[in-house]
Amino acid sequence: MQTATPKRIHIAGLDAIEVFGPGDATVGVGEGPVVVVLHGYGADMNDLAPLWQVLGGPPGTRWIFPNGPIRVPLGPHWHGQAWFPIDLEALERAMQSGGTRDLSGVAPTELGASREAVMRLIATVNRPLSQVVLAGFSQGAMLATEVTLHLPQNPAALLLWSGSLLQEAVWRPLAAQRRGLRFVQSHGRGDPLLAFTAAERLHAMLLEGGLQGTFVPFNGGHEIPEPAIAACRKLLASLA
After folding, report:
1. Which of 97, 138, 158, 208 could cross-link with 183 by S-S, CB 3.0 to 4.6 Å?
2. Interior angle at CA 128, CA 151 and CA 122, nearest 5
3. Cα separation, 55 vs 50, whole angstroms
């Protein structure tokens, strides 16, 4: 297992955790890919930070785990962060009826602002897009998709864990501009928050746009299981 010291930083207006994986004889520390990992609704930059230890990555990989800009109250003296607001009442009604919300026609408020914030972060790392990986869980996966589809060219890869399809009318034509981009997408068949069928629709849309992806379905809920980690680890290793 790699050993390094995560540190808190402020980058492009966002608080973040940064970790530099070790280099080797040919690649120095920080000279490999940059992996930007976006957390889900109500979590924060700490939530996914341990993933760098299990996902590996080529020598010299730089990991950045930014905080979403929106403060979310979770209870007395307890809060998390988010990238855009969600309609909690609509989500609760859907869950009570045994279903999930169809978000394919939804364009969330603040999605554009968070997209621009992450794109500024990417510009700040001063690496070519061919060396930048976007990754995210849940709401973070949706934002990672949004950012990737709006970049001027393909990043190195896209990793999506338990995400969903947003604003399909916008995403579908943009996906056709990301032809050849490699991605891994995972989703639980029993996810109570974001429908498995919506994840399948997202995967189909990306493939129809010419992206090259691996879909990792699993018998679980809203989580990142080991098979998804293994598929992402394999893709990251191929970037060396």
Report:
1. 158
2. 55
3. 9
Three-class secondary structure of residue 94 per DSSP? helix
For residue 239 the two structure tokens come to 């970037």
In single-letter form, the type of residue at position 2 comes to Q
pTM of the model: 0.94
pLDDT in tens, the chain (240 residues): 445 789 999 999 999 999 998 887 678 888 899 999 999 999 999 999 999 999 999 999 999 999 999 999 887 888 999 999 987 676 666 566 666 778 898 889 899 999 999 999 999 998 999 999 999 999 999 999 999 999 999 999 999 999 999 999 999 999 999 999 999 999 999 999 999 999 999 999 999 999 999 999 999 999 999 999 999 999 999 998
- In residues, how long is the chain? 240
Give the span between the Cα atoms of 112 and 149, in whole angstroms: 12
Which of 182, 176, 181 is CA-nearest to residue 209? 176
